[in-house]
Fold:
Amino acid sequence: MIIVSIPAAEPEATARSPEKAHTVFLVEVLCNGRRHTVAKRYSEFQALHKRIKKTCKVPDFPPRRVPNWVPKVLEQRRQGLELYIQGVLCRNKELPQDVLDFLKVRRCQQDPKGSSAPSSHPPSQRPVLGFHSDPYVRLPVTDALPDTVLSGVLQGLYTPWSCSPCAAMAQGQPGS
Structure:
């Protein structure tokens, strides 16, 4: 399984013309327990979209806006590209080689050609601990013994100060 996010967009100046900076989107890729980062420009995302739009299911591509150096516009573009690449991954069970090359992924579980034994788990995805039921959902316990701590706290909070166990016994009412 491939998980992709774009946490940041950074301006990058070219060596030939430092005054003509462009924006680079840092794409974090998590595949089979390994994480790496790929730097991509908007034009590279656009070229990928043009290559794969006829061969697989793709979401709408985020439009180019000018000027791209305005922080609000940059953030909108970053979010749009992140949703786009995540949409490509979610909508396609078999990813085209162009997408894998774009993300610099050689083999991954989503790629049927990449795994030699589809029934076995890769080493980083073997189950470590299994549960027969959900450990966070607890059914009500029907113990024969009452919860004395809970009843003591409730009695301490809600019993009036004037009603002590000794006063209750004096009036002939057993204390509980």
About this structure: The mean pLDDT is 75. The beta strands are 2-13, 21-31, 34-40. Helices lie at 42-52, 71-91, 97-102, 148-158, 165-170. Residues 148 and 154 are 10 Å apart (CA to CA).
